[in-house]
Amino acid sequence: MTTYFDHRETMTHEQRKEYYDRSLSQMVELGYERSKRVKKIFDQHGLAPADIQTIDDLERLPVISREELVEMEAADPPFGGLADEQAEIERIFTSPGPVYEPHLSFDDPLWARAYHAAGFRRGDVVLNAFTYHMVAAGLTFHGGLCRVGATVIPSGSAGTQQQVQLIRDLKATGYTGTPSFLLAIIKKAQELGYDFRNDFQLKRASFGAEPLAPSLRRLFEEEYGIDTYQMYGATEVGDIAYECREKGPWHICEEVIVEIVDPETGRRLAPGELGEIVVTRLNHIFFLFRFGTGDLSSIVDEPCPCGRTSQMLSGIAGRVGDAVKVRGMFVAPSQLKRVAEHFADVRFQAVISRSGHRDTLTVKFETPSPGGEVQALMERFEMVFREICTVKIDAITCVAPGTIGENAPLIVDERSWK
Predict the structure, then answer these.
(1) Angle between helices 36-44 and 13-34 (to 10 degrees)
(2) 375: which residues sit within 8 A by CB, 6+ positions away?
């Protein structure tokens, strides 16, 4: 039977909307009163706190990119005028830029939802391989593990041989860090003569900071018996979303309001449409409204078998600069890679051009399949492409084998805007 971190994870749609709207309204009132930057932004846009009372009202505020946040803090250190200067701040983290981030209050269950959903509990001994130096990662992940009752080994960025020793001597049952570093630890253990699956007790891992490739997940789970989970966040706003036992779309944390927006306009997009992840974290210290992460995703607005009722993210489809907009919809190279996974013997390239005032999407299609099978294959390709990319192909052109080079880009934009 599924257990949840707290009751908020199973709120009804109406309860969640009321909770978000009430919390946002309180944050706006406090931010306008205690943050000179928030007051300036509101005044510049002709807004009063009463104008931002619901999630829908957030569209009236600008999206703040990381580059803009760096500029704000450089002009008015340390927090760009976004923090309550009278607040008691327990610690301050830094990230490249630099960006200074006041630690969120201890009543915020930072990362605990992700670890709870991944199955970490009291009795687990977890190796925390995120760095503890200056940046938020090590200590905030440490706090999340403590909130679910786990014992933490703060190994940080120690070398792989020392990590192997810690896992062995302290009988670690879990790992949190990047997937690539866990693989390096496993390889080191094998070099030292250990059988990782049978000689160690590590059976659960929760990853962040880099993607978990499907092939690497299969390796961890099938070869080494490690149950794997992903969690997603940003140093400026903390945890954003996480996987549950279903390992499908990522549940959005209850402490953040997530919008998927058109990065060019800041306009909110409908569920299923690809856009930039924009986050407002509900807290009473750092009033960063509508932070643009630069990551691309889409909202999945459907029930999850695990019983959590939050909206979900479809995963990370890439960065804003990697995507191309076609007839108002973004198409990212990572989406095309997902399409390619369905067609092992097909090489293709999406070409965007312009006909009059309309974008045209043509796909060059290269396959060694016999002639009689190509038409059916192309029809299935069109269906999968539209399902993943949400954009209809205008034409598919079969090309001779060898036409599309092995390292050719998956998407080419031939449009000229002169």
Answers:
(1) 100
(2) none
Residues 59 and 268: their CA atoms lie apart, in Å, by: 7
Domains of the chain: residue spans and CATH:
325-413 (3.30.300.30)
Q: How far apart are the C-alpha atoms of 275 and 319, rounded to whole Å?
A: 10
pLDDT at 10: 97
Q: Is 18 helix (H, G, I), strand (E, B) or coil?
A: helix
The DSSP code sequence of 23-90 is HHHHHHHHHHHH-HHHHHHHHHTT--GGG--SGGGGGGSPPEEHHHHHHHHHHSTTTTT-B-TTS--S
Please state the φ and ψ torsions of residue 362, each to the nearest 5 degrees: -115, 140
Looking at the whole model, is its pTM more than 0.90? Answer: no
Token pair 């890439």: residue: 318
d(C-alpha 159, C-alpha 305), whole Å: 40
Separation CA 41–CA 208 (nearest Å): 33
Contact 304, 312 (CB under 8 A): yes
Q: How confident is the model at residue 16 (pLDDT cuts 50, 70, 90)?
A: very high
Tell me which DSSP letter residue 394 carries.
S
DSSP 236-275: TTEEEEE--TT-SSEEEPTTEEEEEE-TTT-PBPPTT--E
**Would you call 226 exposed, middle or buried from its count of C-beta atoms within 10 A (0-12, 13-18, 19+)?**
buried
Segment 25-42 shows an average pLDDT of: 97
In contact, 52 and 45? CB cutoff 8 Å: no
- What pLDDT digit, counting tens, does each position of 178-203 carry? 999 999 999 999 999 999 999 999 99
Q: Are strands 318-319 and 64-65 parallel, antiparallel or unpaired?
A: unpaired
- Above 60 in pLDDT, residue 259? yes
Q: Please, are residues 22 and 14 in contact by the beta-carbon 8 Å criterion?
A: no
**Could you tell me the CA-to-CA distances from 8 to 13, 16, 18, 405 in Å, in that order?**
11, 8, 12, 51
What is the side-by-side order of every strand in the sheet holding 395-398?
395-398, 358-366, 347-355, 411-413
Rounded to 10°, the helix 179-191/160-169 angle is 80
Strand pairing partners for 324? 331
